[in-house]
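Supplementary Text 2. Reproducibility record for the structural model of the 376-residue chain.

All settings were left at their defaults, and a single model was retained for analysis rather than an ensemble. We include the record here because the model underlies the residue-level annotations in Supplementary Table 4.
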Amino acid sequence: MMIPGWESFFVLIFVLLYLTIPGILYFFARGRYSCVIIIIVMNIKKTKFMNMDHEYYDLMEHLEKSLSDDWNRIQKWVKQDPGTAGDQAELNWASILTNWLPANYHIVTKGRIINAAKKMSPQIDILVLHPFYPKALRDKKLYFSAGVAAAFECKLTLTRTELRKAINNSFEIKNLFETQNGSPFEELHQPILYGILAHSHDLKSKGEQLINSVFKRIVELTVESLHDIDKKNYYLNHPRMMTDLVSIADLGTFKLQKSLFIGQGKNIELMKKLINNTNDDCVATYYGVYKKLESTFQGTGIVLGSLINEIVKYFAYRNTSLRSFSEYLNSIYINLITISCNSIKWPKDVLSNSVLKKLDNKGYIEDSWSEWNDLF
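Retained model, structure tokens:
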């Protein structure tokens, strides 16, 4: 029997979780657009319900424990043989993607991407190939860009230096692909998904402070990359070139989100929280995290479950045969999402004039798979 008064205590704790934690503003002038990038560190909580007893999360919890055990085992000899340790980390992640992504997507390791103009990417740890990719080409180490669905860098322990390098690679890899036009989704995304996968990290803080440290680090390093790119190639300075996913197995899966605040129906309340300004139409990019929690009631299998969910969802936008499976995964989705307002504000002209005109005239189409949504 519950002790009298505990009910109101739990309600109070629940409400406090939803309070915004004020943070810091960091201003950075971008040369190309002569505008300001605003980074705001704070949290917004929102709830989605899921069945914590679902078999999917039991299996994902087992995988997370397996990665943790491997990390602890490898730490005993990583200093003596860091190369082999890195190879083991890559094999762990390749095995997870092979076993849990749709079976007709092919997983390969240590390859480069080459586009039609013969430009090549750096070596990439893991590539996910489209179902149509020719079997005879799967064992070649130069993979045709038109057949690559996703690329991932793998790290045993993700450091600031490694994260910076991986973020830089995002711009270089995505630049190999033709940009798409015609809708907000197409113009804000490249045909390839790019992510970073790690067993663990080198940060020392704990709890919400740790989550905020990761948010801040990802965005600060992205801003640094944008600053460097702006001096070399304006074309790359665009939200579609950013890193889509950062999954740290013992912490959380961080997913890039893009909100449109343009024309009819823009979300003024969210706009105030993200960029502290409602005057100018713009696009905001920021990260949300599906985080590992200390409570077993809320924490089982969340990190890897959300990683697979988000990859499948990305593929399903262009491969409609995956949508029913993606919707199923979404129906048993994570119950707690933390959204960081480490926000980068982009001018509205990152979208084409034709898309802007349609948004002004007709507004958004609120549908799960609409390419005219205000949030991706």
